[in-house]
């Protein structure tokens, strides 16, 4: 297993990215670098209420995209159908079946999750680590090129 040592600890990912990008610009071999998120938390942003109608609408949109894909296949493999013939029916049937499927899927949950949300995994801090044999070279590049990120940073 490779031995990595901490080069810096920063408050957010942009600072870690700034540091690694600066190392790259300074000619440091960044393939020996990694960014580690620490103190992880899951954040779920609730976007709104889900209803049978909204689920049907989302299903219809998914069905339209599937219909476009099928229509593209028809358009390529059966050019005699024309544009409307190749895309019209698949898009229409995709929307109808997608709406039905979306409504049924929502109804089947029986109200156990009546909201839409987006989950994200966030880190409180980030460590920029370098393989042990390159740590002195990385510290030298940080010092020579003024690569200290803009906010509170601990360099090692």
Please name the defining characteristics of this protein:
4 helices; alpha+beta; 156 residues
How would you describe what is shown here?
The chain has helices at residues 13-25, 52-77, 82-108, 135-144, and strands at residues 4-10, 33-49, 115-131, 154-155. With 156 residues, it is of the alpha+beta class. The protein has a 4-stranded antiparallel sheet with strand order 2-3-1-4.
Strand and helix order: EHEHHEHE
Largest sheet: 4 strands, antiparallel
Rg calc = 26 Å
Spatial shape: elongated
Brief summary:
This protein has 156 residues and is of the alpha+beta class.
Record the SSE blueprint.
Elements: E1 4-10, H1 13-25, E2 33-49, H2 52-77, H3 82-108, E3 115-131, H4 135-144, E4 154-155
Antiparallel strand pairs: 1-3, 1-4, 2-3
């Amino acid at each position: 297993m490779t031995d990595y040592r901490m080069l810096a600890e920063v408050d957010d990912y942009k600072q870690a990215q700034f540091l690694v990008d600066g190392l790259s610009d300074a000619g440091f071999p960044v393939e020996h670098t990694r960014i580690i998120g620490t103190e992880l938390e899951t954040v779920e942003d609730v976007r709104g209420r889900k209803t049978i109608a909204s689920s049907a609408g989302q299903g219809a949109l998914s069905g339209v995209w599937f219909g476009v894909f099928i229509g593209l296949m028809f358009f390529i493999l059966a050019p005699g159908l024309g544009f409307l013939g190749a895309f019209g029916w698949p898009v229409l049937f995709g929307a109808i079946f997608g709406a039905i499927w979306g409504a049924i899927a929502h109804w089947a949950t029986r109200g156990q999750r009546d909201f839409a949300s987006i989950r994200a995994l966030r880190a409180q801090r980030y460590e920029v680590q370098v393989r042990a044999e390159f740590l002195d070279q990385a510290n030298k590049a940080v010092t020579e090129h003024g690569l200290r990120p803009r906010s509170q940073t601990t360099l090692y």
